[in-house]
Amino acid sequence: MSHKIRISVSLLLLSYLIILFSGCGIPGSPTKPAEFDDSVTLKAKVLLPTNVADSVLAASLKPADKVWQAFIASSTCRVNNAEVEFSLNATDATLLVEKLPPATAYEISLRSGDIDLRAVTPYAGRKTIFTNGLSLKTTADWVLRNAFATKNSLAVAEFADYDAATPLINDVEKLLATELSRRDATSETVSQALDAALKNVLQQKTFTGIFYKNSPGKDFNGDWHGNVMYYVYNSAGIKALVVTAQAKMNIKCTGSTAVGSLELLPTGAGPLIPNISGVSEPVKLSFGFQGTCHNGRVAFTRKGRLEKKSEKDLDAWEIFPISRGLAFRVENLDLSYHTGLDTIPGQFVLQEKK
After folding, report:
1. Which distant-in-sequence residues (6+ apart) come within 8 Å of 149 by Cβ?
2. Domains of the chain, with CATH numbers?
3. Quick one: pLDDT band at residue 52, thresholds 50, 70, 90?
């Protein structure tokens, strides 16, 4: 009998604990644990262009409507390429977007008709503020970044923590303002003008010729590795092969001097032109290097000897940090035999070996 009583008491105690921790039957207690809220709110001051052709305003608006009224009446907002709900305060010209998931960076687009204002900012906590607002200037900054990213197989968000050179931004901003004010302006005519101007800039400027960091530079020291792609030329100076490879690098920066070694082990190759005769099959490539470590980047020139001639420059290497590792920009310098390599930075990225 006493044994049955002990069992009953144990069952009662267990039932009480279940009720206690589940919150059931206790007034005021939640039925389930509160969910952790890590959502992000974006805030930006909006500065709209004032001299805009009627042709770039939303088609449903009357030509007499002002630009600001156009945005209040008919505009859409996208964040990281997804349309989102937003509020646009006409009193203080503030754009507010709430309940966004955490991300490395945020690209925002506020559009009405053919006017598309853009900006990008790195993640800065649950309340991320676009410190430069949303304007033609931030749009010029984004356009410059997007052009570089597109050409180099990168995403704008991967280098959102860099600043762009002010003179270049100012030039693009002036071009935007001029094109938007033309009587027959459309998104197509604006894009065409921008493409022509940016093509020239990207041909003349390297990454560090356009972007820079005010914050402390990346610590390059250590071992890095990754699966990469690079390009090989034929004797006529035409890109003939795309090569996939496993890459390993060891590097040490002391002051402004960088010393290291790099190894490329090909794992495959594909032709880029119909006739690749005269192009050697890619083999393992290992070399040491010494260069500079300055302004958050490493740069060096790989040298070699050809046919027992004096040492010559083969290719120029520029290494810069992005959010997923170290990106490599390599350019052939051998204009006689074209033995140097070529890369697209977004296709040649190494991660730190843990």
Report:
1. 155, 156, 158, 159, 346
2. 40-212 (no CATH), 222-352 (2.40.128)
3. low
